[in-house]
Amino acid sequence: MDPRIDPPFLRGMTQRRAISRRSALKMAGLAAAGAALSGCSIPGRGVTGTVAKADAVADFWKGKQKNGSLRFANWPLYIDKEGSRYPSLELFKEETGISVTYQEAVQDNSTWFGKIQPQLAAGQDIGFDLMVMTNSIQLNRAIQLGYLVPLDHKQLPNFGGNAAGRVKSPLWDQGNAYTVPWAVGVTGIAYNPKYVDGEITSVQELWNPKYKGKVGMMLDSQEVANFGLFATGVDPDKSAQADWEKAAAKLKEQRDQGIVRKYYENDYVDALVRGDVWVTMAWSGDVFQQIAEGQDLKFVVPAEGGTIWTDNMCIPKTARNPVDALMLMDFVYRPDVAQMLVEYINYIAPVPATKELILADAAKAKGEDKESLEQIANSPLIFPSSADQAKLRNYVTLTSEQEKVFEGIFQPITQG
Amino acid sequence: MRRLTPYLLILPGGLWLLVFLIVPLVYMASVSTMEGDVVNGFAQTFNFAGYLDAFGAYQTQFLRSAVYGLAGTAIAIALAYPMAYWIAFKGGSRKSTYLLLVLLPFFVSFVLRTVSWKFLLADDGILFEPLKSIGVLPEDFRVLQTTVAVVGGLVYNYLPFMVLPIYVALERVDYRVVEAAYDLYASRVGAFTRIVLPLSLPGLFAGVLMTFVPMTADYVNAAILGGPDNTMIGNIIQQQYLVNNDYPVGAALSFTLMAVMLIGIFAYAKALGTQNVLEAAAR
After folding, report:
1. Would the pLDDT of B280 be above 70?
2. Could you say which of B38, B122, B243 has the minimum Cβ distance to residue A274?
3. Which residues of A touch B125 (CB under 8 A)?
4. CB A39: neighbour CB atoms within 10 A?
5. For residue A251, what is the enclosing H or E element?
6. Which chain B residue's Cα is nearest to A138?
7. A175 and A190 share a domain?
8. A Pfam family in this protein (chain A) (predicted)?
9. In a domain, A162, yes or no
């Protein structure tokens, strides 16, 4: 047929095609999807250099004032507590008039960072003015991304005067530009003498086939990598890619032989107490708390070395009450307050003067109190011996590119 | 006005789905083809090869999740069908009590239910310690951190989702039809396989859908009850998002999982021979 005289064809050529509502909606949807697919990207927010400049400090703190309230996010069981009261925070309120809303909001660094990262990226309040994060990939990231407030050390005289030398100016935050320690801990080996004969002194025991299916390792890549590195005779803080690969091979062998029961988060403590694992990587404070509760457990810094880590107080950039947060940071470095904290937290005290204070209290106390105070003051887990301290190593500090390589080497082991 | 009513009725739900499901899905689809890292930012490069890389790196976990999902679903059917059958036909006036009992575990948090298994099944816990001391079980016997624990946890947590739809389908079966089958000399087995079972298929299908999909995507059970060889794809996605902040890989894995499950479900629907089986399940 001649198309020129075909009426539908002519109509089709000359009139606007009628679009049904449904197809219009479909097209609109497709267009939106197309725009979303091609248009946006997620901008990076890296800041150059990790050391805060002096004017950045002055700029931030200029005109900031105390507001009388503070929202504090910390880890569970990480502050002195009597019933539902927090004596050290009450003392803080008495002396400064600042009331603190305290929440055990942080369970682990990655989940916490995953939660606050989008809000910080958007410049929104995260609901907290002060938070505690371990020196970790996530904390490094928070510093690099400019999410933390540079600290004004003129307002931190107690920290300057009372903090132990070894907790000052750590590798990951030179000059404590953004963080000051809350508590310090050691990653070593804990074991249950009920199942283990003799003493454990070496990292190699974690590879002992005798404990097949009864060895706990940690899920965190840095933690597990550190022990792989110790087992291959390398200091984590001096390690490079070749060392990581060797350590990964060692860890893989341990896994493939069925020696590792599980890569644990905080739950290794329960597993150890219940007897599901007999020998495990462990954090010092956890084990001390169990021992104080009467569990028969042992904690050692292995001969090859253990790692020292720090949980740090820091102020998110979007904090509403930064001055109040800074005041609390300094307050906990007063020896009498630090003592209240260490007697409860049982991790290594960042204020060494607390040991004398605790011993002085112990001399005055009687019975059980005296015993428990002496146990704290003499515990190598809280005030480590110089022999143990000599064995302690730092985590390796990674750049963003190195971190990808590092995770790429160690994560496949724990991922299974 | 009357013509508009149906549209107004679906408006709230429709908007809800549009804003909270479609928009994030489109956004995640977009993220899945980006490249970069969280510090330097992610740029849209239409990196579809990322899908292949992600799938290649984690095919073990994909396969494992599918196997766990299938095994869990099969066990759930085996446990749930007799239960639903009994409640529907023999439950009498106490039916609602029995249903409440089936649902009772839901009144306790999902995580708490799973964690409580750790106490129950501890190597030297209340269950195994006595059995080990009298020599029924070998000393090194364990359930935690094994496949049995993970699949068991999955079945335990999703069982009610299988019981309820099967119950609803069976409840609707007119028992006189079964009696008619007996009158026509059907055996008990014959009456079940030719009358009751076909009539309950839509419920069974709905049950499979409601358990297989969440079981396959689950990560809580593997994280709490599993060991190094039980990691599921859900654990990997969670880790990529929240630990590594590698959003493109996480998104690509999620979409691959979604696609694989959709294909699987439609293949299953087709194999079952019910063309409108989704509608049948919803009826």
Report:
1. no
2. B122
3. 274
4. 9
5. helix A241-256
6. B243
7. no
8. SBP_bac_8
9. yes
Average of per-residue pLDDT values in chain A: 86
In angstroms, the separation between the Cα of residue B24 and the nearest Cα of chain A is 10
A92 and A171 part of one domain:
yes
Could you tell me if A345 and A290 lie in one domain?
Answer: no
Best of B17, B30, B239 to disrupt the A interface (most A CBs within 10 Å) is: B30
Q: What are A281's two structure tokens?
A: 């990587």
Tell me: the pLDDT tens digits for A36-59?
444 466 766 555 444 556 688 999
Chain B CB contacts of A416 under 8 Å are: 61, 227-231
What average pLDDT does range B222-240 have in this prediction?
93
Taking an 8 Å cut-off on Cβ atoms, the answer to whether B37 and A44 are in contact is yes
Domain-located, residue A33? no
- Would the pLDDT of A28 be above 80? no
Are A138 and A82 in the same domain? yes
Strands A99-103 and A180-191: unpaired
The Cα–Cα gap between A389 and A348 comes to: 11
Of A44, A213, A263, the CB nearest to B140: A213
The CATH number assigned to the domain holding A135 equals: 3.40.190.10
Residue type, A345: I
Q: Are residues A151 and A294 in the same domain?
A: no
Segments forming the whole domain that contains residue A220: 185-306+392-415
A411 neighbourhood in chain B, CB within 8 Å? 239, 244
For chain A, how many structural domains are there in total? 2
Which chain A residue has the Cα nearest residue B121?
A: A276
Q: How many CA atoms lie within 13 A of A257 on its CB side?
A: 16
In which band, very low, low, confident or very high, does the pLDDT at A375 lie, cut at 50, 70 and 90? confident
CA distance A34 to B181: 58
The reported pLDDT for the residue numbered A22 is 41
The answer to which of A83-92, A94-103, A378-387, B176-185 has the lowest mean pLDDT is A378-387
Chain A hits for B34, Cβ within 8 Å = 41-42
Q: Are residues A166 and A85 in the same domain?
A: yes
Q: A414 vs chain B: nearest CA distance in angstroms?
A: 6
Listed in sequence order, the residues at least 6 apart from A291 whose beta carbon sits closer than 8 Å to its beta carbon are A297, A299
Q: Which comes out higher in pLDDT, residue A16 or B128?
A: B128
Domains of chain B by start residue, with CATH: 55-282 (1.10.3720.10)
A24 lies in some domain: no
> Both A103 and A162 in a single domain?
yes
| A30 residue type, one letter | L
Contact across the interface for B34 and A42, Cβ inside 8 Å: yes
When mean pLDDT is compared across A349-353, B98-102, B166-170, B208-212, the lowest value belongs to A349-353
- Tell me whether residue A375 is in a domain: no
Please judge whether A144 and B39 are an interchain contact, meaning their C-beta atoms are less than 8 angstroms apart: yes
Beta strand pairing call for A306-314 and A392-393: parallel
Is B31 in the A-facing interface, judged by CB distances under 8 Å? yes
User: Min CA distance, A354 vs chain B (Å)?
Assistant: 36
**B49-69 residue pLDDT tens:** 999 999 999 999 999 999 999
Q: How far is CA B172 from the centre of its chain?
A: 24
Q: What is the sign of the dihedral through the CA atoms of A163, A165, A167 and A172?
A: positive
A322, A277: one domain: no
Q: From residue B10, how far is each of A67, A94, B281 by CA, in Å?
A: 48, 56, 21
pTM over 0.95? The answer is no
pLDDT tens track for A289-319: 888 888 999 999 999 999 989 999 999 999 9
